[in-house]
Specification:
2 helices; Rossmann fold; disordered C terminus; 130 residues; globular; alpha+beta
């Protein structure tokens, strides 16, 4: 097993402006990054996850719930988090907690497989019950 650690602005990972990613990762872990990204950059963060995480790979996320930090709104509700990731990730589980009197959440997501990964028909689009 090889392990690679990359330090970069998260949204630049795997782009010419950031560290190269030789092959997609099996696992991405985010403890405290996604919930602090300004709302205008959250779509770019989701794009980064699609670039660096292989289909079927897992994404572990720790995020605080909505709150003010130093006068700035940070955090995401579970609904916001799932909406932002829903097109490419399925939620495996969520665990609610608390940090300093405010809600926080641990998530496990799995990157969806593309229809090509299923062969010629995706179980989600073939109309067949399974």
């Amino acid at each position: 097993m090889s392990v690679a650690f990359h330090v970069s602005e998260a949204i630049k990972l795997g782009t010419p402006a950031g560290p190269p990613v030789g092959h997609p990762f099996d696992l991405a872990v985010d403890i405290g990054c996604y919930h602090a990204i300004q709302s205008g950059h959250r779509v770019a963060y989701g794009s980064m996850l699609r670039r660096v995480l292989r289909e079927g790979g897992y994404y572990v996320l720790y995020a605080c719930g909505p709150r003010k930090l130093l006068g700035r709104a940070v955090g995401l509700s579970p609904q916001e988090t799932e909406t932002l990731l829903a097109s490419d990730f399925e939620r495996c589980w969520i665990r609610a907690g608390e940090e300093s009197g405010s809600p926080s959440y641990w998530y496990l997501f799995r990157r969806r497989l593309s229809p090509a990964a299923y062969g010629h028909d995706s179980p989600r689009t073939s109309g067949k019950a399974g």
